[in-house]
Amino acid sequence: MHEDLNRKPVITVSSDRTFGFVWTVFLVLFSLAPLRHARGVRVWPMALAGVLLLLSLFLPRALHRPNLLSGKIGLLLSRVVNPIVMGLIFYGCFVPVGLLNRLRKKDPLHMQLNPSASTYWITREPSDSSRASMINQF
Q1: How far apart are the C-alpha atoms of 11 and 26, rounded to whole Å?
Q2: Cα(71)–Cα(51) distance, integer angstroms
Q3: What is the distance between the alpha carbons of residues 95 and 109, in angstroms, rounded to a whole number?
Q4: How remote is the C-alpha of 138 from its chain's centroid?
Q5: What percentage of the chain has pLDDT greater than the value 90?
Q6: d(CA 64, CA 55)
Q7: pTM given for the model
Q8: Is 90 exceeded by the pLDDT of residue 82?
Q9: In sequence order, which residues have a C-beta less than 8 Å from that of residue 138 and are 6 or more positions away?
Q10: Nearest to 8 by CA among 69, 67, 70, 75
Q11: Closest C-alpha to 14, from 4, 22, 6
């Protein structure tokens, strides 16, 4: 593999207060979700959201360990999910396109060797509009 998974990444997490607010909003939305289907509100997430809101406002330091734990879980998920997603993208997109190009004998990058060619440079005649487009690039 090209990635060194033995390194110890530094866990950078948001502030404990922000962590509490985010989870409070998530739990409130989760508890209100049954209202879309004319059902009752879920009580336990609403109660937990209330506790988290109070902790976030008055004692955010109490949320430090859960905040670090969520950061570690995020790192673990990235170690598992990233190779899977990249593999799906590679084998689902790039490999089929490459196989189709080989079947159709397409060479979009002009990688085919040409022994009779003196150079592989593509000569282009500059136009006035191309020179003008390079002014004030940024």
Answers
A1: 22
A2: 21
A3: 16
A4: 28
A5: 66
A6: 11
A7: 0.63
A8: yes
A9: none
A10: 75
A11: 22
Q: Are 9 and 75 in contact (CB under 8 A)?
A: yes
Question: Which 8-state DSSP code applies to residue 88?
Answer: H
Chain-wide mean pLDDT for the chain? 89
pLDDT per position as a tens digit, 7-52: 777 778 899 999 999 999 999 999 999 999 999 999 999 999 999 9
Rounded CA-CA distance 81/125 in Å is 48
Q: Take residue 120 and report the two structure tokens written for it.
A: 């592989």
C-alpha distances out from residue 42 to 4, 29, 45, 46, 47, Å: 44, 10, 6, 7, 9
Residue with tokens 């009779």, as numbered in its chain: 116
As a whole number of angstroms, the distance between CA 78 and CA 67 comes to: 17
At 8, the amino acid letter reads K
Please give the angle made by the CA atoms of 77, 78 and 79, to the nearest 5 degrees: 90
Helix spans in the chain (H): 16-32, 43-58, 64-89, 95-103, 128-133
Given the structure tokens 């950061």, which residue do they identify?
Answer: 71
Q: How far apart are CA 123 and CA 70, in angstroms?
A: 56
